[in-house]
Amino acid sequence: MPDVIRVATMTAVAVVLLLVSTPIAQALGEPAIAPWGMFAGLATFGVALSHVFRRALFPYLDLRATAYRACTTSEGAGRVFLGVCIVLASLLLLMGGVAKAGEVPPGAVQYMPVLKDEIRTNWPGMHMPSALAAQVEQESCVSLKSARCWNPRAELRTSREQGVGFGQVTRTARFDALAELREQFPEQLRGWSWSSATLYDPHYQLRALVLMDRRNWGVITGTATPDDRLAMALTAYNGGLGGLSSDRRMCAATRGCDPGRWFGHVERTSLKSRTVVGGYGRSFFAINRAYAPAVLFTRRPKYVPYMDGV
User: Fold this and answer.
1) Domain shared by 13 and 124, yes or no
2) S-S: 285 plus which of 46, 86, 173, 272, CB 3.0-4.6 Å?
3) d(CA 199, CA 179)
4) Are residues 298 and 230 in the same domain?
5) What is the DSSP code string of 196-217?
6) What is the mean pLDDT of residues 121-147?
7) Which domain holds residue 143?
8) If DSSP codes are grouped into helix, strand and coil, which group holds residue 138?
9) What's the DSSP call for residue 294?
């Protein structure tokens, strides 16, 4: 019976960790809690499962009694201590593998110092610089091993649009984001154009991303928290300030929806099309709504040690 209780307890703890890590991360404004909570839950579940397998394979082996008997001699105590060290080392190797999985792409190592300089110059006091590094990954990395990941020559072309660089600055038949940014920030972006080699200049590209996010942040007001404001600024980067304004107005007219909160509120209200678009594989609504969570919760944690505190 103690074994059943022990396994059931560990399984329950694992399930709780998996279920509550993301809501807690959102509530505390610390996205890094989400993946670490997930890893802790999976590790706890693995321990419970290993206990079941050990009992099934070696039903007559009582580890506690064996350890007590071994500790009656100095040599036996040393072996028990060595066994504990091996178990702890295995856990450390497992966590080391997790840490390795969270390593930043090679291009990020090269260009993060440039991004830091642009944030210091153009958005001093930005409360979560790691989010902008995660945004570069979101925009440029089809996969972390892609040659275009964190590459100023990353480019997307469809029948509808062309996007270039770290921030995938975009032009379509209806709008030109680069021209719009140059008009709004003539001093900072003078000399940057579609027809010049400066188009692929990493300084211009990262400066444009910082300036566009800062502009969105400045326009967006009346949010419940800075994290809601940042989530809305990122969403506007992807889908436009006009679309965000419409979504917030629709939220305000919806019972129980707070237009000052993004997660669980404004993110649920939109007039954006929910029809899958050819060439994208998803609807514009789905693409836009996945953007802020992907940046803040999926991609951002790996950049926290490198970017926050710039």
Assistant:
1) no
2) 272
3) 12
4) yes
5) SGGGG-HHHHHHHHHHHHHHHH
6) 96
7) 106-151+202-307
8) helix
9) I
